[in-house]
Amino acid sequence: MVIVVVLVFLVIIALEVPGLVKEKMWRELTAFAVLLSFGMALSIPQALGLQLPSPNAPIELIFKPFAEWLTPK
Amino acid sequence: MPEKGKIDSKQAVLLMISMILPTAILTIPAVTVKTARQDAWLSVMVATLAGLLIARLVVSLSLRFPGQTLFEFSEEILGKALGKMVGFLYIWLFFLYIGSGVVREFGVFLVTAVMPATPIIVFLIVVTAVAGYAVRNGLEVLCRFNQLFIPVTGLLVIVFLLSTLDMKLDRLLPVFDAGLAPIVKSAVTPTMWLGEIVTLAMIIPYLSKPKEAHRVAVLSILITGFFLTASIMEALLIFGPNLTGHWIFPTFNATRVVSIANFLERLEFIVIMAWVLGGIVKVGVFYYAVVLGSAQCLGLRDYRPLVLPVGVILVALSILLHGENIVEVLHYIPHVEVPFLLIVFEVGIPLLLLIVALVRGKGGKSN
Prior knowledge:
The complex is a heterodimer of chains A (73) and B (367). With 73 residues, chain A is mainly α. Chain A contains four helices and no strands. The relative contact order of chain A is 0.11. Chain B has 367 residues and is mainly alpha-helical. Chain B has one domain (9-360): Amino acid/polyamine transporter I, CATH 1.20.1740. Helix content of chain B is 76%, strand content 1%. Chain B contains 14 helices and two strands. Chain B has a two-stranded antiparallel sheet. In chain B, a hairpin with a 3-residue loop joins strand 1 and strand 2 (264-265). In chain B, helix 1 (9-36) packs across helix 6 (139-149), helix 2 runs antiparallel to helix 10 and helix 4 packs across helix 13 (307-321). Chain A binds chain B through residues 8-9, 12, 15-16, 19-20, 25, 27-29, 31-32, 35-36, 38-40, 42-43, 46, 52, 54-56, 59-60, 62-64, 66-67, 69-72, and chain B through 34-35, 185, 188-189, 294-295, 298-302, 305-306, 308-310, 312-313, 315-317, 319-321, 332, 334-336, 338-340, 343.
């Protein structure tokens, strides 16, 4: 599973990076790299079966009173 | 400017309908009927009115800054640093959040109701890839794709008419049984869906006639509200409030009931088609908002290099944010998505931006 995910990332890099380097779009390349590494950070642990903390928990806590009013008992 | 395409008002209306309707038509009936019981159709009407107000707010704000998207005029209103922050909040917590949620719901629906033996990741990747291809080719392509396939959603009307044989009007009685409170309460969830019209602030600069934006917004909310009311009515009139509230996809089950002369049966394929095609467009719109917004916030010349990385993030987030299965997905809707997205991003920030713009005298007169 992890190998497939890494392979997908390599394909994405091979598709996009040469064109960006050729056109000298360094700003775009930086944004691409940052977003892609964020995507890696999110997906590779999941492919390894690790449990990442869900960002939903703090949001759920903040809006708890409203959600309790909203949903029937 | 990263986007050069132009779309006309009709395309925009159809795009907005496809942006709201596909997930709403499947998820909303069960959620609203739980609280408002047989009065759920009334709460959708209340929600439609609220949706019109949100649309009015967003379009008025957007028209003060002709030719600018949400990300550009928030910078002009709040100054560079704060405006960029608002832009990033919208990208990461609104567009990406809803986008990954739709990817998730798309997969979960197909796995739960139609193809239980297929791994969900297949659906997640396929829908993101197709939407990503449309997004990479620009707004015009996305709109044309939508224009081509939206008649399928129109077929839902025929299904509704065919299922009238199984309907009994007295299942809606007594009207107004529990009073106003449950109706207003259960109007909140559909309001969040209709409030997704905020995304129109990304599209208005690319309308060929931006002056018609008010009409676009009102028409799309009204048509969506109509379809939503019809789908709830269909489920309620066939099953009554008890059964409808216990089903996960009442509209889907309602179309399964249709059987005319033992010949015209199993019309649920129309719902699946509308859902699959509409789901792709819905993912596409939010996907497009994320990549275009990122490009504008970062001052890039082209948004296309961002399409693939954002697609990866969408798939990864859809698993991380929205739970393992249909039960968790349905739990997060009232507990996280509705209050958070509705209060903060659909009403809070646009209202704040409009007030600040008025106080600081930024932008031209609206209309």
